[in-house]
Structure formats: structure tokens, C-alpha cells
Amino acid sequence: MQELIAQVEELGIEINHTSSLVIIFGIILLTAIVVHIILHRIVLRTFERRAQASSKLWLQIITQNKLFHRLAFTLQGIIVNVQAVLWLQKGSDAAQILTTCAQLWVMLYALLSFFSLLDVIFNLSQKFSAASQLPLKGIFQGVKLVSAILVGILIISLLLGQSPAILISGLGAMAAVLMLVFKDPILGLVAGIQLSANDMLKLGDWLEMPKYGADGAVTDIGLTTVKVRNWDNTITTIPTWSLVSDSFKNWSGMSASGGRRIKRSVNIDTTSVHFLDEQEQQRLIQAKLLKPYMDSRHQEIDEWNREHGSEASVLNLRKMTNVGTFRAYLNEYLRNHPRIRKDMTLMVRQLAPDNNGLPMEIYCFTNTVVWAEYESIQADIFDHIFAVVEEFGLRVYQSPTGNDIRSLAGAIQAQ
């Protein structure tokens, strides 16, 4: 540039310091405009058209996140900085101002380019089933936060003219303040790593956390919050760190198994429990589901009574009970039900009797995890149980209702 100014002066044109600066700044500005037009109007537009026409997914994702646009702006800043160093006098105010602005520009767009690169990697990872189930969003957000802090330190050190090491060493005194300000992001970053490493939670999992009123599908795992779409279509946000510090229920294992558990009891009125007489046995043995059980049970009891029993007292004899036969019937009914899985736990058991009678618990798994189908199967089973219980001479326990009291009062008045 100095040679160009000297050649101009040889032609008899006097150029003072101000004029030379104007010329240099004009050339730098013209160069920046030309480079901008070439990169953005020609190169990037051509690339975008080819990316949109291409079937390659990674090209489309790069275009959507404007990675090359930001890299182009970074390159423009580098070119301006190089021009300022080459053409302006070292140490001059003009050189310092222009190089400082160019370096700030480069730092800013380099950071934005890095953000775009992370977005590209994240979007590409979501296309793979294995990576899409990991809480990578929170980790990437944490990396962005750390990068922004580091670039912020570099920008401040550049403006102050101090070494970044001095600023970083000075942050030690502000550690307590920084920990307080960035407590949630730091805890969220650590929690996101733990969730990913231990495979505790993935997008789409059914999460239940009563403490926060969450019961639904996980839609987003961020740096500081996890979003859950509840089954009533409300959205619950949970602090990410609370998923590590508190307990929650993840139903993904149930969904993956292909069977959902039915665990519900029907309370039997204990006053209706009795031994089966011959007439009741003959009536119940007509049921196809009960015939094998009653034949084997009758044979077993007869053999025992012949060896150990005595006609002198009913206490010396073994007999079948209506509640035991009912339990056997329910067990066979479930084993023959087309919507109940036979390869998973299946049983009908008695629980400890209480003030509400004798609980008879159904414990089995359906062959579907779809909520509506599961509820329909469960309701169908208990519809049958309530309808068939009287065939065994049993009654379902129920607290007295207003209708019972009115019937009793009417009976008393009639007497």
C-alpha cells in the first residue's frame, strides 16, 4: 500500500495521512463487499440450490442451520483483519480499531458457527434410533454455555487489552457468585450426563413423577428442564437435576415388554364362604374350566379322607370350599383368556382379610400396552368376575348404601 501511495505521489498528486487512510479503508471496504457478494450471492446460493435438490440428508440439515453462512462471515472478518495488518501502520489508532473490530467479528461468528455445527450434529443424531433416545440436547446446551463463557472472556480481554489468563485467574474470587448464578445449568449438565450414561430416561418414555404432577410422555430433555406432555395434554416442566436427586417411575420397561400388568382385587364377603355340598359340586363340575380341577381335587380329598378322615365330625374331613373353587376358576379363566399373556406372571391370590372382607387379587399381564385396549381388557375381566361370583354362592363385599338403609327401614315398618 505504501508503494501504491508513493507511485501516486510521483504523478504529482499529493496524498496526506488522512487521504491515505480514506483510500485504505475504501479498499478494505470494497474488498469486503466483493468477498461478501462472491460468497453469499454466488457460492452459498449455488450450494443451497444443490442441497435442496439433493437427497442427502446431511446437506439439507447443514443448509437449515446456516453453518456455511456463519463460516462465510467468519472468513470475511479474517480477511478484513489480514488487510488491516498488512496495509495499516502497526500500532496506529486506525490499525488497532479496525483489527479489534475484525477480531471481535471473527470471535462472534466463530462462536455462532460452532453453535451451528453442534445443531447439525444434534439434528443428524436424531435420525438414528440409538442416538435419538439419548438426552443429547442438554449436553449440547451445556457445551454451548461453556463456549459462550470462554468467548466472552476472550472478548473482554481483547477490549481491555489484558491477557485472558488474568481474567480467568480473577474468576476464582467470583466462583461462589458464578456457582449461584449458574447453579441450575451446572446441575442440569451433570444430570444430563448421568441420565445418558445410565440410560435412565429417553425421549418418548412414559414418566410418572407425582411430586411435580407429571404423568405422560417425555417430549424434551433440555439443559435445565425436562418437558412432559401429560395424558390430559397439559405440559409439565421438571428441573433436569431433580430426575437424579429425586425418584421417578419410568414405564418404558413395561412398554418394551409388550405386556401391562393388571393388579386389582375384588373383596369377598367372608360370611358367604362355606363348604360345597354335593348339589353345588355337581352343578359346578358342569363348567368346562372347572371340570379338570374338580375331578383331581375330588380324588385327592377322597383319598385323604379314606386314610385320615372320620365320619364322626366334619372337622375330621377335608372338603372343597366355594372360595377355593372360585379362585381355581378365575385362574383357569385367565389362562384361557385370549388377551392375557401366558409367558408372564399369572395368578389369583388371597390377600389378608380386613374390614372390607377377603381380597381376591387378580395378578396378570395383558398382551398389549395400549392404554385404551388395556383398560377394556381389565374391565371385561372384572365384569365377568362380578357377574359369575354368585354362581359359587359368594357375595361381593360392599358397604351399606342409602338404598340398603331405605330397604331395611321399609322392612321394619312393614313388620
Automatic annotation (TrEMBL):
Residues 329-395 form the Mechanosensitive ion channel MscS C-terminal domain. The gene is ybdG. Its main location: membrane. This is Miniconductance mechanosensitive channel YbdG. The chain crosses the membrane at residues 20-39, 94-118, 139-159, 165-182. Belongs to the MscS (TC 1.A.23) family. InterPro entries: LSM_dom_sf, MS_channel_C, MscS_beta-dom_sf, MscS_channel_2nd, MscS_channel_C_sf, YbdG. Gene3D superfamilies: 2.30.30.60. Residues 184-252 form the Mechanosensitive ion channel MscS domain. It is found in: Cell membrane. The keyword Ribonucleoprotein does not apply. It is a multi-pass membrane protein. Keywords: Cell membrane, Membrane, Transmembrane, Transmembrane helix.
